[in-house]
Amino acid sequence: MPSPKLEPVVLSDEERSALAGWAGRGKTSQALATRARIVLLCADGGTIAQVAQRTGTSRNTVSKWRARFVAHRLEGLGDEPRPGRPRQIGDERVEQVIVKTLEERPGADTHWSTRSMAAATGMSQSAISRIWRAFGLKPHAVQTWKLSTDPQFVDKVRDVVGLYLNPPENALVLAVDEKSQMQAIDRTAPILPVMPTTPARMTHDYVRHGTTSLFAAMDIGSGSVIAQHYRRHRHQEFLRFLKLIDQAVPKELDLHLVLDNYATHKTEAVKKWLIRHPRFHLHFTPTSSSWMNLVERWFAELTRRKLRRSAHRSVLELEKDVRVWINEWNADPKPFVWTKHADDILETLATYCQLINDSGH
Question: What is the distance between the alpha carbons of residues 203 and 188, in angstroms, rounded to a whole number?
């Protein structure tokens, strides 16, 4: 049976003005902004399917808010009352908190706290905290990032991501890097074990017993790792590690190594050795883009699961302990699967650049 004909959405000038204000204001609650855009598009003659596609929502969502508006007009776009104690804070005051959080600063401070926002709005700290949680606002938190200035950024991204997503046949792709300056440290008192209601405890101060560097090459297909400790971190050690890889990998396989731009990877001695070993192909990540090297993810596992809560009284003890952990890893390796396409990465970068341009700094 054909679906029933929908009642047309007809807006008064006042309703259209209010809806346009909600939909166009960048700081408005995104849920309310989406509902306003749905009604405006329906009023302009859009079908359920067309409006769902334009707003990035489902057809059921469009039908729901279209019907709610037809039945209750602007008031129908708010959330329905829920069982329990009635709300004590109205929408205007909630919007005031959101706008102040996003658009203003508390005097000379860099960001709002629940205490300073409560003082500025006359609400309680718990009310401010509830509003922030409801809208996913975290003024105290900040994320850091680094913008690469590599002139070959685009080409290098496409090269490395292409290796991860479509490895060449009869070849091994290895993510290679060095974890330098690994410290053998011992706490000034014994580490206390986990107990009921009490986490493990260790002293904040420690005694250093020397450093070592771990060179690692992770097979992105299997997750297994070729690793070796060296006391120094020069091109000589890098050459020795290349020779170790050459011995460990069957001769019939080509080797594609993903590396960073560290100077020891590009010395004349290394270049001459590579000429004599044509099965090695080096692929460099862009500068300031260590996140593109998958072995860094493995180093993070090593740090989290072994190094952060260990104590060692000598470099030899540290190296032996790490070797045991690596052997256990290789007994049941877990690959880290790359899923991001190069175009997605470049689009994200373009968005960041646009934000920087729009910020006025």
Answer: 7
Asked if residue 5 is part of any domain, the answer here is no
- 200 and 333 fall within a common domain: yes
- Is residue 140 in a domain? no
Same-domain pairing of 160 and 128: no
Residues 167, 278 within the same domain: yes
Give yes or no: residues 51 and 189 share one domain: no
Give percent of the chain with pLDDT exceeding 70: 93
Token reading at 24:
């166009």
Residue 28's contacts (CB-CB under 8 Å, 6 or more residues apart) are: 22, 95
**To the nearest 10°, the Cα dihedral for 340, 344, 345, 347?**
-170
Domain membership of residue 254 as a residue range? 153-343
Q: Dihedral sign for Cα 133, 137, 141, 144, please.
A: positive
Q: What are phi and psi of 344, to 5 degrees?
A: -65, -40
Give φ, ψ of 87 to 5 degrees: -65, 140
Residue 204 one-letter amino acid: H
Domain count across the chain = 3
Sheet holding 171-187, edge to edge: 225-230, 206-219, 171-187, 254-259, 280-284
Q: Tell me the C-alpha to C-alpha distance, in Å, between residue 109 and each of 54, 206, 270.
A: 40, 35, 52
**316: burial class by Cβ within 10 Å (0-12, 13-18, 19+)?**
middle
pTM above 0.70, yes or no: no
Quick check: is 70 in a domain?
yes
Q: Do residues 52 and 164 both lie within one domain?
A: no
If asked whether residues 318 and 176 sit together in one domain, one would say yes
Alpha-carbon separation of residue 230 from 236, 241, 247, 253 (angstroms): 10, 9, 17, 26
pLDDT in tens, 135-155: 888 998 887 777 788 888 889
